[in-house]
Amino acid sequence: GTDAEIGDLLINEGNAYNNAGSYDEALSVSLEAYTIFENLNDKRCMARSLTVSGNVYRKLRDYEKALVDYEKALSIAREIHDPRLESANLGNVGNLYVAKESYDTALTYYLASKNIREQLGDRSLIAGSFNMLGGLYLNKGQDSVYVESWGLLLDTAMQYYLSSLEISKKTGDRRGQVASLHNVAGVLLLQDNPDK
Q: In whole angstroms, what is the distance from residue 27 CA to residue 107 CA?
């Protein structure tokens, strides 16, 4: 295949390795893909490669390296005026800050991502933003630092999940519906069993 096709395969392979927990392999193929796309001057795919490595570093809890890759990808997305890619990487940075329990910073990134998605008018992406926001409030609600506002945080998470579910139903997005229902069930279980 062409170099671009090989690079695309490597990005997919990197995602698969990351999902399987084979982090060294994921990093290796994402770097290989980045080099291919850099030689082709394909900035969009360079950013996609950086997203893969950022996701790996986030899973490894190497937040500093993850943030470097996400910020590079975000910078490229802005440079090439790709709002979908920008939105995705704003969400990735938000995910990183949720993992670091820096919820207010995560919220800033999630809202910026959601605003772009709303401007694009892509309802399935907006539903995804609502799921991310719900996850933020769910995680915050389970953090002992916020024990006094636990109920309110879970209620907020539930509202975001229900908003996502409503959009997914209207658009016929079965995967989105399943994800939202799973998230709603998680909140209901916590509300019934606050010590779990």
A: 28
Phi-psi region of 173 (alpha: psi -120 to 50; beta: other; left: phi over 0): beta
Q: Please report, for residues 89, 106, 129, 146, the alpha-carbon distance to residue 55 in angstroms, rounded to integers and kept in the order given.
A: 10, 16, 18, 27
Each residue's pLDDT tens digit, 96-127:
999 999 999 999 999 999 999 999 999 999 99
pTM for this structure?
Answer: 0.88
Residues 105, 142, 115: CA angle, nearest 5 degrees: 35
Amino acid making up residue 51: T
CA distance 35 to 14: 14
* Full DSSP string of 121-186: T-HHHHHHHHHHHHHHHHHHHTSGGGGGGHHHHHHHHHHHHHHHHHHHHHHT-HHHHHHHHHHHHH
In tens, the pLDDT along 56-90 reads: 999 999 999 999 999 999 999 999 999 999 999 99
